[in-house]
Design a protein that fits this description.
Low-confidence stretches: 240-250, 413-429
CATH architecture of the largest domain: 3-Layer(aba) Sandwich
Shape: flat
Mean pLDDT: 85
CATH superfamily of the largest domain: P-loop containing nucleotide triphosphate hydrolases
Helix content: 40-55%
Oligomer: single chain
Largest sheet: 6 strands, mixed
Structural class: alpha/beta
Number of domains: 3
Distance between the termini: 45 Å
CATH class of the largest domain: Alpha Beta
Order of helices and strands: EEHEEEHEHHHHHHEHEEHEEEHHHH
Strand order of the largest sheet: 3-4-5-2-1-6
Radius of gyration: 29 Å
Length: 429
Amino acid sequence: MRSGDTIVALSSGAPPSGVAVIRLSGPDTGAILHDMAGALPEPRRLALRPIGRDSLLDRGLVAWFPSPHSFTGEDCAELQVHGSPAGVRAILKLLTGKGARLADAGEFTRRAFENGKLDLLEIEGLGDLLDAETENQRRQALARFEGGLSQRVDSWRNQLLDLRAEIEARLDFSDEGDVADALPDSFADSISSLRADIGTALASLEHGRIVREGIRVALAGPPNSGKSSLLNALAKSDIAIVTDEAGTTRDVREVPLDINGQLYILLDLAGLRETDSKAEAEGVRRARQAIAQADIVLWLHAPDIADAGAARGERDIKVGTKRDLGAVPDMDVHVSVQTGEGLDALLHRMQAIGDTLSSGEPALLSRERDRHALESAVDALDIAARQLTVPELAAESLRIASQSLERLVGRLDAERVLDRLFASFCIGK
């Protein structure tokens, strides 16, 4: 990735489209825009301009965003033009001919990060927002993109800086008259309070993961118990192959399903049975692995198929399939894909369990990277609390905790501890 030059890219969907948005960023943006569209419009105001002064290519809306008040922190511009393939190609050719280059993937966002407009957490939120397929995913991604987690982490970082400054002052300036030798009595309590706050946030991570990745629902049972038929009925599409031949499904098939704004991932699995077929045996192995990792398991029992003898769990639902052929005793719900009987009841049960897995409010933590960083910070705080009698060791543990948080947001502190130190204590004489 090259910095210091001007980049251009089509930022909207591929043409043809009603409108195409072309974005520029870099030091030559203003000059290029003036050369091809006339006088620069008032910042952050749309203006109708001819596109191409020597040879008119189109007529569209132009927006000018001078640095630092732009998405990337550089001079930026946007052209809203008609979304014809030929028109977009001609405009991009003109722009690159005037000194801009086509942007690399993600380069606008990368420049926003490098110029301090977004941190890594906000960038991840932006990526999740662009990928959001359900209402819950949208709300959660937007909360992260808007800086909800960044603000939380900044609060923790500032508390850590205060704690580190307290220790560093005593290690480096103990001979100064206005610096006490001993740490204040509240120091251990401050560590404990910070550790508890981070721990509370960590407890919400599973809810966030569920929203972001979806609730995995395994359809389990013996061959021909109706797994693929039920998947097709729930998805309202002929996705899975359905035959009377046992062992048709051999791999794990994933089908997304939106239930009241929450993403569910239906897993169509190989039928559970002993087999001499190596291919089918591998399918059964993968099926058992998927069942073990699933958030919800639908154990399917058909009146014309021998019971697989599945064990019950808190998130299992016993489903009697092929209700039109008869009823299987001791089921949570009976369904028939032929008549539609019981499908709504099954969805209601799935949603009831799903509501216990996902939080009502958007969770700020949702990624394994979040878990690793915060668990590392918590571990370091626990160690620091046990090392207060040896300030040098406690200071090092607090530094490790700070680094964990800095990595989370994409920054590593260097001089900030000193800045906080001299701002908090009367040392600079």
